[in-house]
Specification:
With 421 residues, this protein is of the alpha+beta class. Helix content is 37%, strand content 20%. It contains 15 helices and 16 strands. Strands 1-5-6-11-10-9-7-8 form an eight-stranded mixed beta sheet, sandwiched between helices. A hairpin with an 8-residue loop joins strand 9 (255-262) and strand 10 (271-277). Helix 1 runs antiparallel to helix 5 (129-146) and helix 5 (129-146) packs parallel to helix 9. It comes from Acidovorax facilis.
């Protein structure tokens, strides 16, 4: 688990701001659920034989009442619980999004920590393929907004439970004939969760996996029509995709469409966003049956990819740095600074250094002003203040240029500065 400190935290704020703007454009509304949920929620929702439930959850017993609790390893189960608990679908479907920390006890890797952060979108109460496609288009639009390149979309369909059951039987029968090739993990999963074997990264098993029965060959006309509709909408919107028959995702709750956005620039952690349809999860955790589909992206991975591609992430810097040569100038200076902030400018005020006398030298103040990244310095000199003036000094374009401005006309100057951003 790691701290996120300035200036790195500015990258997070920039990404979150982009997400909020885009979610509003697609009419998705924010939902915030607890970090701690009953352990049973994740066992029922994710599946007892998933890696997350078996090995990765941070679970504990409440010392006061003995309740079994877990730090959320993902957010979909909590969102579904909240939707069911508050009867949110009584008046129709809901489009929701979230962002926040998740927790999994796994080996830390590049872009993966035991406390990690996800941003996700969920559309609940909508059965149609057009909503699957809308969510994929939403993620695709986010990559465009962020300036990300070389992110490819992989699709698959997991069909319906009866189709998966038929495929499961054929898959187990096939793998039993090649058990000598399977590693220990695959043998353990052979009868409990054989579909996950198809997602193995073990090179020694690739030939067997490639020749295994494909789930898509077991899909009936209705499932295939749903999948074809998703693909046709994406193609109509010039979104490139490939079908990956081995794409299964890590949770048991998926059916029909599943998808991942993948990059080759982050090594083994190439999936930056993934999701799919989960039409049976709401009923599975105790709610009234309703269809749903969603995705989640890994914030750390997306930011890592931005760094790899040297995409420009605007730094959060003040518009103005206030240089205050003397203590006597503080009342007027602080009053003026507050007025500028109320007008919408970001102003960093110089503060007296620890252990020193007065406000510090002009040289040190201008050094801090330059280091702040501000475009301008406002200098509240005693002589200028006695004339009702303040000095505006450029710190970037035309460095060194400066002029006197009447204190009572700084509002006009602030307005011009904002309009020229």
């Amino acid at each position: 688990m790691n701290d996120i400190l300035p200036p790195e935290s500015a990258r997070w704020e920039w990404l979150e701001s982009k997400v909020r703007t885009l979610m509003a454009r697609y009419a998705y509304r924010n939902i915030r659920t607890p970090i701690v949920e009953p352990t049973a929620l994740f066992v029922r929702g994710l599946g007892e034989v998933t890696d997350i439930v078996e090995k990765e959850m941070y679970s504990f017993e409440d010392r006061l009442n003995g309740e079994h609790l877990t730090l959320r390893p993902e957010a979909t189960a909590g969102v579904v619980r909240a939707v069911a608990e508050h009867s949110m679908l009584y008046d129709g479907g809901k489009r929701l999004y979230y962002m926040g920390p998740m927790f999994r006890h796994e080996r830390p890797q590049r872009g993966r920590y035991r406390q990690f952060h996800q941003i996700g979108a969920e559309a609940l109460g909508f059965p149609g393929a057009e909503v699957d496609a809308e969510l994929i288009l939403l993620a695709h639009s986010l990559w465009r907004e962020l300036g990300l390149q070389n992110v490819r979309l992989e699709l698959n369909s997991l069909g319906e439970p009866h189709e998966r059951k038929a495929h499961r039987a054929a898959l187990i029968s096939y793998l039993e004939q090649h058990v000598e090739v399977l590693d220990e993990e695959a043998r353990r999963r052979l009868h409990s969760n054989p579909l996950r074997i198809l997602d193995t990264k073990n090179p020694a098993m690739q030939a067997v996996v490639e020749a295994a029965p494909r789930l898509i060959d077991f899909l009936g006309p209705k499932s295939l029509a749903h999948f074809d509709a998703v693909k046709s909408i994406l193609s109509a919107n010039d979104v490139a995709w490939t079908v990956n028959p081995r794409l299964v995702r890590g949770m048991d709750y998926y059916n029909l469409t599943v998808f991942e956005f993948v990059t080759d620039q982050l090594g083994s952690q190439g999936t930056i966003c993934g999701g799919g349809r989960y039409d049976y999860l709401i009923e599975q955790i105790g709610g009234k049956a309703a269809p749903a589909v969603g995705w989640a992206l890994g914030v750390e991975r997306v930011l890592e990819l931005l760094k790899e591609q040297t995409s420009t992430v605007p730094a959060l810097v003040p518009d103005v740095y206030a240089v205050i040569p003397s203590v006597a100038a503080l009342p007027v200076a602080v009053t003026t600074i507050e007025r500028l902030r109320q007008l919408g400018l970001s102003v960093q005020m110089h503060a007296a250094p620890a252990g020193g006398e007065g406000m510090g030298s002009m040289k040190s103040q201008f050094k801090k002003a330059d280091g702040s990244g501000a475009q301008h310095a406002l200098v509240f000199g005693d002589d200028e203040l006695s004339r009702g003036m303040v000095v505006v000094k450029s710190l970037r374009d035309g460095v060194g240029a400066q002029s006197d401005h009447p204190l009572d006309s700084l509002a006009d100057w602030a307005s011009n500065l904002q309009s020229n951003r």
